[in-house]
Structure formats: structure tokens, C-alpha cells
Specification:
This protein has about 70 residues and is α+β, with helices and mostly antiparallel strands. The chain has one domain (about 1-55). About 30% of the residues lie in helices and about 15% in strands. The protein is built from two helices and two strands; from the N terminus they run E-H-E-H. The protein has helices at about 20-35, 50-55, and strands at about 1-5, 40. The chain has a two-stranded parallel sheet. The longest helix has 15 residues, at about 20-35. The model has no long low-confidence stretch (mean pLDDT about 90).
């Protein structure tokens, strides 16, 4: 089984306090306790350093495609 993690974010004024690291580690611990053997994540360039520090390595660039006026974030 695998666990996927996306959209970890902190408010601008809370960055640098280790909150994203804590959220990520806790989510991965919960996933492992539930039987996950592989952790997969999608990230932005801003968080690459955090995930590398946690032992993740890039595997493939992810591109998102959408028809005009259909993508809602």
C-alpha cells in the first residue's frame, strides 16, 4: 500500500517554524501505522528542500493539464 501527500502549506508568517515538517512527519507516521510501505508526494519548488531533508528524492516532474476554464484550485 502507498500513501500520497499533497498541499501541505503554512501561512507566510508561520513559515520557518517547522510546522510543515511536523505535519508531514505525523502524516507519514499515521500512514505507516495504517500499513503504507511507500510514501509519495507532490510538491512545489518552495518545499523541495524540506522533502529532500526528510529523505525524499525526485522521481518525475508532474505537469497538470486542463481545458480552458475548467481548472479550479
Amino acid at each position: 500500500m502507498h500513501a500520497g501527500l499533497t498541499s501541505v502549506a503554512t501561512r507566510t508568517e508561520a513559515r520557518g517554524l517547522g510546522l510543515a515538517r511536523l505535519l508531514t512527519v505525523r502524516a507519514l507516521e499515521a500512514a505507516r501505522a495504517s500499513g503504507a510501505e511507500v510514501g509519495v508526494l507532490h510538491t512545489t519548488p518552495m518545499a523541495v528542500g524540506l522533502y529532500r531533508a526528510l529523505g525524499f528524492e525526485p522521481v518525475v516532474d508532474f505537469r497538470l493539464y486542463s481545458a480552458p476554464d475548467t481548472l479550479h484550485l
